[in-house]
Amino acid sequence: MELEITNKNENTLLSRWEVSANVAFHKTVTPKKDEVKAALAKALKVEPELVMIKNISTKFGANTASVKAYAYTNKEVMGKLETDIAHAAKRAAKKTPEAK
Question: 19: burial class by Cβ within 10 Å (0-12, 13-18, 19+)?
Fold first, then answer.
């Protein structure tokens, strides 16, 4: 899998980088989000936990995909802005029984 970052904008108000990239893959399937997240984290020199993949889109029959992602500067800001993370934390808190 080859990753090429095509656009990288810093959003200082939201403490994140907004990234667009192209991924070329030689397998028959589109790479998993975790694989793309790891490649983006390595290219941006951040931890994989701070990268949020928003969209991976491919065209039919092509071995390339376009990726939209955010790379945050810290986990607290990411938790406040990303609803998936906030909802997962609430679900986990509800599932854990209180210690008696």
Answer: buried
